[in-house]
Amino acid sequence: MKNNSIIRSISLFAAALGLSMSTSQAVNVTKLDTTTMNGGALDWSAAPATTDVGEFTATPTAAHLAAMTLGGTMTLGGLQLDNTMAGPLVIASTGGFYYTNGVNGINMSAANQNLTFNNLLALSTNQTTVNQTWLVGSAQTLTVNGVVSGPGSLTIGDGTPGNSGAVVFGGQANVFTGGLTNNGGTLTFGAAASAGTGTITIQAGGIISTTGPTINNPLNVIGTGSISNNGVSAVNLTLDGNVTGNGTLNLSELGAGSTGDTITFNGSAGQLSGFTGTIKFSDSAPIPSFLRLYTATGSTAATWDLGNGNIVFFNRQGQAMMAGALKGGAGTSVQGARSSGVTSQFNVGYNGINTTYYGTISNGSYSSAATLSVAKYGSGTLTLAGPNAYTLSTTFNGGFLNAGSVEGYVNGGFGVTGPFGTPTTPAGSLLFGGGTLQYSAVNQYDYSPRFSTAGNQPISIDENGQNVIFATALAGTGTSLTNMDTAGGGSLTLTAAETYTGPTVVTSGGHLKLSGSGALTSGTTLSIQPGGTFDVSALSSPYTVAVTVAGTGTGTSSSTAATIVPAPAEFSILTRSPSS
To answer: How many domains does the chain contain in total?
Structure first.
């Protein structure tokens, strides 16, 4: 540090001569072998300016490093720990302040020892806003037990693996106001107010562990970040602040002990409405752990990935549960209210992506009155591949809801479990509001007895390469039927005389068949799109239809007649010859 002393001396000499040489250039001043950190030259290689960086090298002994104290208020531009230190540095609590206003407030990138700071620490001088960065090498730990204050922001890490070391806040309530960014570091909170009063931003793989019960701050997730309960059994964590961002928030180490843990979103109903990313749960939870919506209703834009562990996603008070998309393994569960005997609704699919859920969807555990219904929204496909047991309705409001699990049976009767639950009153439990029931290779069950007969419903069926039979008449004034086959090779067969009065549409690739007593309602409009097939070849007698082609005229037929409006391309009508 001899050169630094020369620079300082030259600067002072120039000032004495009235020259305009700047003295603001920050330099490193090295710590001498003393136990105090005063501002004079007795403790440093040169008397430090407020912008200088205090550097710890091999000079101080291990004994002095372990018993360092402040002699009063101390202002530096930052601290730097080198890789030659003799032992860990512990700065005792002596009632003074250590102010730091450099962008690298604490730099432990190359440190070979840990730092424990027990004194009060400010992020700025004279309440000027200074945004500060703490860098900790991947093998080291910075522990801060003194209250951190100031109007500036604090960033942990720089997004590189080499500076992903641990920063631990003790049980103090920090009061800095500029926000906390975890940019790839490992950060542990010991109190609800560890992060000060601003927004917490998690990015670049940043990890936040907490041994306290609550994080009060708003949370902004950019890229990928994690929050965990630090692997401590029975530590329930509550997130009170609004959640925003478009990254992936991993919630991990749940249920690490013998008792399942709970993470609660406890903000307003719209606590998560500004979050458009993914909330992902640990795959390793060996026992049931819980995600609870207390007053929050979830997010219509976020993807909720319950992982492959044992996670129960539920609401406390019966409010609606919103999920942009849903994923999860066979050990996961979505449930209704667990703290009140009220009905709940799970609304899913708004963000339009295709997902598969292998877990179960069921009523709440509070009482038999804590029932649950499910509604599918959005343009994507949600495959329900688990044995669901909720007892209220299923509504197809958008996209495709795939019957991806086998319908169970009791003595050949109504299903015990299946993709669309086990409604207490089966009839009328499946409702259509713009979405499609999609069949699968594991399920060709006849759900027509469960269709609602309310009017003006756009019933939409995708046989998806399967051969499906509806034996119960579809009903409803103004209700329509759309038949499609997105996979090809399947068919939908109607064996009852239908009573719905709206249009019947066979889309391209669709194959709508009539068999047995199957017949369309008199006066309904039958529209066959290019590549669609209307098949009456299985009827025991010829089936006559009234045909309108491009508005050129209408034929007459029996009371079961329909009007066929073909699209301007080829379509198929399969009939049985009168002589056959």
So the answer is: 1
Q: Which domain holds residue 523?
A: 466-580
Residue 200 token pair: 């917490």
**DSSP secondary-structure letter at 259?**
S
Q: What is the dihedral of CA 362, 367, 369, 373, to 10 degrees?
A: -10
Residue 417 covered by a domain = no
What Å distances lie between residue 365 and 49, 281, 368, 545, CA to CA?
64, 21, 8, 54
The residue type of 391 is: T
pTM of the model: 0.88
b/e map 254-292, b = 16+ CB within 10 Å: bbbeeebbbbbbbbeeebbbbbbbbbbbbeebeebbbbb
Nearest to 85 by CA among 52, 62, 63, 108: 62
Residue 63 host element (H or E): helix 62-65
In a domain, 155, yes or no: no
**pLDDT tens across 205-247, in order?**
999 988 778 899 999 999 999 998 765 555 688 899 999 999 9
Decide if 1 is inside a domain. no
Instruction: Give residue 356's identity as a one-letter amino acid code.
Output: T
DSSP state of 9: H
Answer for the pair 75, 39: CB distance below 8 angstroms, yes or no.
Answer: yes
Residue with tokens 């950060």: 187
Is the residue at 234 inside a domain? no
Name 243's bridge partners. 219
